[in-house]
Write a structure and sequence with these properties.
alpha/beta, UDP-N-acetylmuramoyl-L-alanine:D-glutamate ligase, binds magnesium ion, binds adenosine-5'-diphosphate, 11 helices, binds ligand NPW
């Protein structure tokens, strides 16, 4: 196991080229937020936007439109029941994040199938939350493109079949190889599994144990993989920054809330972009 280092983050978060525009930084669609879990997709979309995604579209239940816009006017919205319109929009996306607050009813199940069928390389896919629970219920073909799953320990148990107490790095890596996708297994010390390697995140604090913290990470990963070419390094950098921000905030706070993390992302990205070694 190797630690995720600040050097990886500095190499990944590069200064923005002057000759660029919003399209340069990723068209990201986030799909989720049923009538009960609207907050989850709002937190994920907020994190993606504050992570620098150039254009953010949220496909959600219409009951969430107003609250989403009140929090995040930068985001566009669409009703996720409108399958034809969704398919049309999906075709133009660089990154699709599905799962935060999606739920597991038949609408959610259908949406996941639609996304798995419609996504094609080089589009990148982030599967989180309810999408993982649905995926574990019956196996489906995954598109041949960059995919990352971001389970907590119970979601990983459902997906991999490994009981929480048996989730060792070796067992998790074997399961990741079988699944063929990058796996971010979230815990106090989150571990990341790629085809080549096992990484561990040195940061993280129990002050992060609040609903929405993982939704925020999923949005950050969506924002990062839409901007930074190296898929693994983009994921590692998002995992690292998410907890590094929390650790700093927790120095003076008993709990850290997801929206407080998102508010700090641009400042931390700026800092790491200034540290980019001149030769890289
Ligand atoms: N504001 C919103 O809209 C929010 C919406 N959300 C959305 O809700 C949806 C469902 O996601 P979920 O994670 O809440 O529920 P689920 O997948 O059933 O897992 C919980 C079960 O697993 C167990 N468990 C064991 N270990 C665990 C661990 N390390 N971490 C976590 N759980 C662990 C746990 O055990 P217990 O707590 O009972 O001891 C329990 O039995 C999803 O779409 C998500 O995005 C949330 O983000 C919250 C904010
Ligand atoms: N005790 C802890 N120490 C470090 N990180 C934690 C701790 N508790 C929760 N987290 C982090 O918070 C996030 C929780 O994710 P998840 O359970 O998916 O939340 P949600 O679905 O409510 O958004 C993960 O990134 C996890 O690593
Ligand atoms: Mg979650």
């Amino acid at each position: 196991m190797q630690p995720i280092t600040t050097e990886i983050v500095s190499r990944t978060i590069i200064k923005r080229p002057a000759d660029s525009y919003k399209g340069t930084y990723g068209r990201v669609m986030l799909i989720g937020g049923n009538q009960n879990f609207g907050g989850a997709i709002i937190m994920a979309a907020t994190a993606a936007t504050y992570s620098g995604a150039g254009l953010v579209t949220v496909a959600t239940d219409p009951t969430n439109f107003t609250s989403l816009h009140a929090q995040l006017p930068e985001a566009m919205v669409m009703d996720y029941h409108q399958t034809d319109a969704l398919l049309q929009l999906l075709a133009g996306m660089d990154v699709i994040v599905i799962g935060p607050g999606l739920g597991t009813d038949t609408v959610a199940d259908q949406l996941l199938s639609t996304v798995l069928t419609a996504t094609h390389a080089p589009q990148r896919l982030v599967l989180d939350g309810s999408a993982l629970t649905l995926l574990a219920q019956h196996s489906r073909a995954l598109p041949a493109t960059d995919i990352v799953v971001t389970p907590h320990q119970m979601e990983w148990q459902r997906l991999s079949g490994i009981a929480i107490k048996d989730q060792t790095p070796t067992a998790n890596h074997d399961a990741q190889q079988r699944l063929g996708v990058t796996a971010v297994v979230k815990a106090h010390r989150t571990t990341v599994y790629t085809n080549e390697r096992v990484w561990f995140n040195p940061g993280g604090t129990p002050a992060m144990a609040t609903g929405g913290m993982g939704d925020t990470l999923a949005g950050m990963i969506g924002g990062f993989v839409g901007q930074f070419d190296n898929f693994t390094n983009a994921i590692l950098s998002a995992v690292y920054l998410h907890s590094a921000i929390a650790d700093d905030l927790a120095a003076t706070r008993y709990v850290v809330l997801p929206h407080q993390i998102s508010a700090q992302i641009p400042r931390y990205m700026h800092r790491f972009s200034q540290e980019t070694p001149a030769e890289s």
